[in-house]
Amino acid sequence: MKVTDMTFKEGHEFKIRIKPKDDCNSFSINIGHDSENIAMHFNPRFDSCGDTNTIVFNSLSGGCWGDEHREGNFPFTRGEECKFYINFNNEQFYIKLPDGSMLNFPNRLGDVKYKYFDVKGDAKIVGIKIK
Fold first, then answer.
1. Minimal CB count within 10 Å: which of 3, 22, 94, 101?
2. Which CATH number goes with the domain that contains 25?
3. What is the DSSP string of 77-93?
4. Which residues pair with 29 in a beta bridge?
5. Are the C-beta atoms of 27 and 113 separated by less than 8 Å?
6. Does the reported pTM lie above 0.90?
7. Residues in domain Galectin (predicted)?
8. What 3-state DSSP class applies to 30?
């Protein structure tokens, strides 16, 4: 799923409900300006690229990936719907995970408004809401 003309601004809350497939290896959520400029790449990996039960964050600027950031907290289960929340400012993204814990990732692009969102991988979007 790809959305190229949304409005996600500083102070908004982005609620995502997603259901990983029963055989899900990984899925990713990207928020940014376009496919070459992604402020936050959020990539829960059940078993992918040598990672097991790890969340990998990154950013993409002008088509070049930055340094990956890994988190060991992994509250996702294959085949089970979950919801989490994202908000941000010009310095950080804040992600509230399904278990209620919080993660953050630097807003490396430093902007306060993004219009691009996509989801890739072995998961189905159940619902999204920006408020």
1. 22
2. 2.60.120.200
3. -TT--EEEEEEE-SSEE
4. 42, 119
5. no
6. yes
7. 1-131
8. strand
